[in-house]
């Protein structure tokens, strides 16, 4: 809690405790407390130590004060004034007129709740982000920051968020941009960002917060969820073949989670009870990921009260999930004592001690442990000093002088609740990671509870699509896990030899493949899908309705493969695990998570901009022996000459290559900018995928090629020549077909959620 003016940590602590400890004689008065358009609540009536909080209707905020505290001398701090009178003011949003190279309509001095703005770019500039935004009740604009850019530099234009000022207009490698927020706004996120080798900006987009600005449960669920998943993923990869939850619960977890809950006296009983529920929800959510972290859970106020001690896990006495929940349940509100202060430094000290203990358990093992700190507080430190030195000690202990490589082993998240949160200070000590957010400001516990509900609602069985192990890991045991979506398909035909195709698991029930694997009259009984761990029976196959190879025979195209896409529905859902897991499909919210895109405004177009960004986009497909074959998809200006080679295919007599390679195809092969691998027989229908954030996203389906350079003896690892080209159905072009079957919420399997 943040009654900073009374017990500000720089102030003399003795004065602080004297004020609290003095016997109360006087009550505070109710003069001039009223607020126009709202009301106030008191924690201890008009007695000493009582906290007064102003409440306004949705979309309004109290002005000029947010709260007061009754001091021992009978005075309110801050003291109420006659003028300006307390009132509930309509929420405004930060200044959107900061857009470079474009115009904002309408141009106003202030933008109030529900005011709408639209954005247009000057000619030659293209718009990224939202073209229209609405000022929301939480003090933020809907959608994403509009940016007008020509993208002539190495990194894309990082834009300027509303209310901010940016310095730096060149975006090549190592160039920096700096941000600050105007007036009373506080900057949350990166004050400085650097254009990196990988074409991305370091850090995360800054945002300007008023003291009434907060994050919505939807935003937090998405951003915290995707950030947390990255930790759970590492854990998942590290642990060996123990898929059984029970086995892992006992030992092998190397993820430590420290949960610190503020129990200072601004936190009332209801809030306290709710916070226990919230923690239970969170640890349930984490267990869904088949991980078993070691936990430290405690409440803090002036002192620290422990619920679960991490040392017990190292002494083989670690409580089970149910036992942790029981411990939380039995911990009573009264038990926290009559503590007044918020001693965040003490909380971090406790965590520091735990981490030091973990280190004593084995220096070598310590190097593999990831530490996640989750701090829930309703304010800033008002006693015990600044938490920053303790946080620095924690960082030193974990980074061990090798910050660059060790940074990923520590995540400090802070959830600030209510509007007394010290944004600036907290934002300085949470960890920052590219594209991720670690500091969230929420209205209250209720909203936080909703956040974890949202996270829980997301279907676990299809979560973490496209998770993969890096290719350079040669361990045999992980060979399946590297491509847990990979499917081999055998289709028997009435009148000819069986076809061998490849496919990809896209939901627990569906395999995506090429339509040409099937012939007229094929029946589901004659098909089999091999997913490595499982062999699955087929219920039906669904070719794209527009697929027709003979439709252009008379135009000099003996075989026309437009819309060469089909879905196979399995008889039952496969069990999703480390070994069997869907690949990410573009334009789904699941894939937004993998791409670390957040908010309701994410579009299919944005996915395309990220996934098919470069003129030569590096992509991969797999051989039936599970060997990766790298290619470059030729996009933009490079596409033309790539598809031109289609005319060299046997028996093709068209003049215009576009007649045979429609816009629905991606093109790979050739020797520019590097020599690509070519596809071989039996690889048809396989996924062509790109990798982002250690997740694989399928962008194409292997359909056909100009030449067959493969022989039985060269094991499918065949390099292209100058004019050997392969064509792949572009998944962005067959969205309605995918959406129709994979997004169908009326069926009993977990559907995907498609974006517009
Ligand atoms: C685009 O915006 C930048 C940054 O404000 C400015 O330096 C540049 O002159 C603008 N370009 C045009 C053509 O207006
Ligand atoms: C913006 O909101 C204010 C307050 O509701 C309203 O008076 C004003 O007309 C709105 N302006 C526009 C352009 O919608
Ligand atoms: C820690 O990581 C190393 C490789 O960095 C590995 O050899 C070792 O088995 C790991 N130890 C544990 C306990 O996971
Ligand atoms: C495919 O196209 C050809 C030529 O337009 C047409 O005759 C044939 O009926 C089509 N086949 C199917 C299954 O629609
Ligand atoms: C090309 O046409 C000839 C004669 O019509 C036929 O025998 C051959 O199979 C065709 N080749 C291909 C690759 O379609």
TrEMBL record:
Instruction: Cite the GO molecular-function annotations of the record.
Output: serine-type endopeptidase activity
Tell me the active site: 516, 564, 684
| SUPFAM superfamilies registered for this protein in UniProt | Complement control module/SCR domain, Trypsin-like serine proteases, vWA-like
Does the keyword Repeat feature in the UniProt annotation?
yes
Q: What are the annotated disulfide bridges? A: 121-148, 181-208
Q: Name one GO cellular component term.
A: extracellular exosome
Record domain Sushi: where: 26-90, 91-150, 153-210
Species of provenance: Denticeps clupeoides
Domain of life of the source: Eukaryota
Per the database record, which ranges form the VWFA domain?
Answer: 256-455
SMART domains, alphabetically?
A: CCP (SM00032), Tryp_SPc (SM00020), VWA (SM00327)
The places in or outside the cell where this protein is found are: Cell surface; Secreted
Tell me which positions the record assigns to the signal sequence: 1-21
Write down the required cofactor(s): Mg(2+); Mn(2+)
Keyword tRNA-binding set for record: no
Keyword terms, alphabetized: Disulfide bond, Glycoprotein, Hydrolase, Immunity, Innate immunity, Protease, Repeat, Secreted, Serine protease, Signal, Sushi
Q: What is this protein called?
A: C3/C5 convertase
The record ties this protein, via PROSITE patterns, to: SUSHI (PS50923), TRYPSIN_DOM (PS50240), TRYPSIN_HIS (PS00134), VWFA (PS50234)
InterPro entries hit by this protein: Compl_C2_B, Peptidase_S1_PA, Peptidase_S1_PA_chymotrypsin, Peptidase_S1A, Sushi/SCR/CCP_sf, Sushi_SCR_CCP_dom, Trypsin_dom, TRYPSIN_HIS
Chain ranges of the Peptidase S1 domain: 471-743
User: Pfam families given for it?
Assistant: Sushi (PF00084), Trypsin (PF00089), VWA (PF00092)
Report any one BP term from Gene Ontology: complement activation
Checking PANTHER family in the record gives: COMPLEMENT C2-RELATED, SUSHI DOMAIN-CONTAINING PROTEIN
Give the main location: other
């Amino acid at each position: 809690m943040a009654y900073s003016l009374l017990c500000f940590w720089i102030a003399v602590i003795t004065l602080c405790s004297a004020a609290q400890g003095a016997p109360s004689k006087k009550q505070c008065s109710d003069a001039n407390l009223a607020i126009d358009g709202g009301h106030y609540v008191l924690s201890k009536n008009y007695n000493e130590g009582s906290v007064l909080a102003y409440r306004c209707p949705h979309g309004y905020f109290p002005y000029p004060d947010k709260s007061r505290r009754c001091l021992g001398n009978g005075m309110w701090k801050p003291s109420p004034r006659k003028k300006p009178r307390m009132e509930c003011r309509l929420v405004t949003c930060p200044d959107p007129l900061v857009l470079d190279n474009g115009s904002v309509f309408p141009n106003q001095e202030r933008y109030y709740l529900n005011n709408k703005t639209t954005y247009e770019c000057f000619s030659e500039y293209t718009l990224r982000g939202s073209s229209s935004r609405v000022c929301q009740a939480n003090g933020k604009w809907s959608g994403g920051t509009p940016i007008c850019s020509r993208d002539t530099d190495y990194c894309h234009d990082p834009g300027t968020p509303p209310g901010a000022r940016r310095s730096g207009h060149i975006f090549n490698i190592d160039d920096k941009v700096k941000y600050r927020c105007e007036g009373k706004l506080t900057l949350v996120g990166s004050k400085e960002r650097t254009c990196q080798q990988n074409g991305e900006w370091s850090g995360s987009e800054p945002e300007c917060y008023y003291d009434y600005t907060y994050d919505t449960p939807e935003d937090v669920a998405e951003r915290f969820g995707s950030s947390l998943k990255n930790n759970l993923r590492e854990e998942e990869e590290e642990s060996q073949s123990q898929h059984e939850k029970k086995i892992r619960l006992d030992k092998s977890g190397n993820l430590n989670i420290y949960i610190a809950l503020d129990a200072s006296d601004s936190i009332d009983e209801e809030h306290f009870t709710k916070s226990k529920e919230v923690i239970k929800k969170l640890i349930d959510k984490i267990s869904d990921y088949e991980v078993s972290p070691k936990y430290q859970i405690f409440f803090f106020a002036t002192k620290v009260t422990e619920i679960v001690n991490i040392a017990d896990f190292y002494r083989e006495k670690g409580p089970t999930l149910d036992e942790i929940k029981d411990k939380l349940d039995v911990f009573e509100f009264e038990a926290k004592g009559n503590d007044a202060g918020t001693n965040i430094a003490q909380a971090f000290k406790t965590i520091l001690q735990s981490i030091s203990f973990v280190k004593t358990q084995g220096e070598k093992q310590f190097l593999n442990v990831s530490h996640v700190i989750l701090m829930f507080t309703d304010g800033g430190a008002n006693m015990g000093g600044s938490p920053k030195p303790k946080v620095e000690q924690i960082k030193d202990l974990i980074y061990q002088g090798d910050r660059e490589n060790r940074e990923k082993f520590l995540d400090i998240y802070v959830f600030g609740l209510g509007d007394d949160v010290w944004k600036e200070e907290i934002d300085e000590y949470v960890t920052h990671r590219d594209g991720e957010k670690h500091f969230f400001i929420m209205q209250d516990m209720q909203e936080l509870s909703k956040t974890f509900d949202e996270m829980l609602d997301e279907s676990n069985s299809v979560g973490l699509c496209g998770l993969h192990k890096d290719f350079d890991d040669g361990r045999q045991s992980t060979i399946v896990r590297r491509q847990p979506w990979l499917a081999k398909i055998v289709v028997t035909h009435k009148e000819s030899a069986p076809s061998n195709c490849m496919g990809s698991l896209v939901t627990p029930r569906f395999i995506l493949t090429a339509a040409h694997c099937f012939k007229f009259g094929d029946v589901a009984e004659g098909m089999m899908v091999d997913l490595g761990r499982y062999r699955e029976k087929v219920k039906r196959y669904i070719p794209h309705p527009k697929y027709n190879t003979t439709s252009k025979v008379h135009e000099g195209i003996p075989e026309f493969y437009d819309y060469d896409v089909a879905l196979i529905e399995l008889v039952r859902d496969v069990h999703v695990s480390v070994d069997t897991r869907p690949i990410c499909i573009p334009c789904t919210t699941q894939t937004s998570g993998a791409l670390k895109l957040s908010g309701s405004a994410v579009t299919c177009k944005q996915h395309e901009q990220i996934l098919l960004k470069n003129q030569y986009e590096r992509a991969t497909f797999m051989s039936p022996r599970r060997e990766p074959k790298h290619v470059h998809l030729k996009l933009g200006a490079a596409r033309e000459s790539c598809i031109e080679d289609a005319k060299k295919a046997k028996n093709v007599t068209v003049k215009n290559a576009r007649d045979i390679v429609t816009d629905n195809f991606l093109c790979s092969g050739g020797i520019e900018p590097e020599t690509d691998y070519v596809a071989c027989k039996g690889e048809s229908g396989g996924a062509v995928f790109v990798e982002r954030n250690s997740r694989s996203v399928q962008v194409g389906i292997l359909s056909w090629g100009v030449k067959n350079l493969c022989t039985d003896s060269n094991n499918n690892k065949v390099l292209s020549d100058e004019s050997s080209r392969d064509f792949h159905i572009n998944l962005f072009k067959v969205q309605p077909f995918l959406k129709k079957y994979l997004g169908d919420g009326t069926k009993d399997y977990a559907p995907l959620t498609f974006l517009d």
